[in-house]
Amino acid sequence: MPGGIDPHTHLAFEFMGTETMDDFFTGQAAALAGGTTMHIDFVIPVDGSLTAGFEAYEKKSKKACMDFGFHMAITKWDEVVSKEMEIMVQEKGINSFKFFMAYKGALMINDDLLLEGFKKCKSLGALAMVHAENGDAVYEGQKRMIELGITGPEGHALSRPAVLEGEATARAIRLASFINTPLYVVHVMSIDAMEEIAKARISGQKVIGEPVVSGLVLNDSWLWDSDFLTAARFVMSPPIRAAGHDKALQAALSTGVLQLVGTDHCAFNSKQKALGIDDFRKIPNGVNGIEERMHLVWDTMVESGQISVTDYVRITSTDCARIFNIYPRKGAILAGSDADIIILNPNSSFEISAKSHHSRSDTNVFEGRRGKGKVEVTIAGGRIVWQNDELKVVPGSGKYIKLPPYNYLFSGIDKAEANYLASLKAPVKRTIISKA
Ligand code: URP
Ligand code: ZN
Ligand code: ZN
């Protein structure tokens, strides 16, 4: 099948006072060992500057051993940012922008910026993405937990319940509808958020929902473990939910309510997680998944009989290439496509452990998991890079893939806009004719 494409990763990401364990070499090597041959990472602006952010990520990605593209986060708004967005789309190969509705005081933006950003995305043919949690309410929830003396990792999940993800998802969807632009909801972790996406899609709105492997196969039971590091390992945002959400997200994926699977790979080691030993608000948010995604999705979705092999290829590769507008160069095995190909043996088993994984992190949220469907060969750009459990990767061999604007979701947008404008009546000319 075509190599996996991971739409959501954070390599060499400086976040919450530290930096992720995996950089563009180690993270990509891990990806290749797990059958993923391309990923799209999030460029984070430097002091709000997109240009400085892009340059920083150009440097970080020099040692890439696998093809990659970029999304960009928008963390503030002014004329400079607005202009920089044009340059990013027209010259730098970025066709998607992520808006954080959470992380108050850090990356979070409010609705006014969200609206400005959505308008700009629409005018550029770029896809607006949201991290959908109500950041003000999360802040309130965190204060409440601290007041109650709940300072451990479970406080993370308790302070930001699914209702806050549902609220923000609904709000982002309605604002995108008001602006008439497509929307991509990253890391859908709850039934609450998923149902909002389902409703919008039924009504014909162009909304894409991306679950991540951690949300699909894990539940929050570990968060209550009495060992701090065992629990802290699972801290990510939105949080891994109670059992039941995982199965519902799987069902949504199998019925097309959700479209493609990412990882949100953002790996921290035990020492970094321990920064939050006295206060869950200081535990760096993020879990691994870049190496495990293809295996776990096969085992959970195909081996279990929930989806066909064809759908597996679609949700792990082809739809990602379509949405980010690089199909059929990526996401297909066709004459003219890049030779990114994997062989997955459905009869061979895998077992996940930090002892054998390729990430530099010393823990793995999927520790001990076994299943069927192992990637035995990975071919990236025509070269065999993974075979007989051996990696042969070369730093600097990965290419930056420019992502062009106006994906298929934009077809019909102009027409909808024209219909809307035509539906408006000309302004009524008024004078005061009634007697007081
Ligand atoms: O906890 C997470 N998800 N860390 C990465 C940053 C983000 O919000 O995607
Ligand atoms: Zn996020
Ligand atoms: Zn993320």
UniProtKB/TrEMBL annotation:
- Superkingdom to which the source organism belongs: Eukaryota
CDD domains cross-referenced by the UniProt entry? D-HYD (cd01314)
Q: Does the keyword Repressor apply?
A: no
**Enzyme Commission code:** 3.5.2.2
Catalyses: 5,6-dihydrouracil + H2O = 3-(carbamoylamino)propanoate + H(+)
Keyword presence, NADP? no
Keyword terms, alphabetized: Hydrolase, Metal-binding
Q: Where is the Amidohydrolase-related domain?
A: 1-385
Q: Which Pfam families match?
A: Amidohydro_1
- What sort of enzyme, by top EC class, is this? hydrolase
Check the record and name the InterPro entries matching this protein.
Answer: Amidohydro-rel, Hydantoinase/dihydroPyrase, Metal-dep_hydrolase_composite, Metal_Hydrolase, Metallo-dep_Hydrolases_sf
Q: Which cofactor does it need?
A: Zn(2+)
Q: Which NCBIfam families match?
A: D-hydantoinase
Question: Hey, which family's this protein in?
Answer: Belongs to the metallo-dependent hydrolases superfamily. Hydantoinase/dihydropyrimidinase family.
Question: Could you tell me what this protein is called?
Answer: dihydropyrimidinase
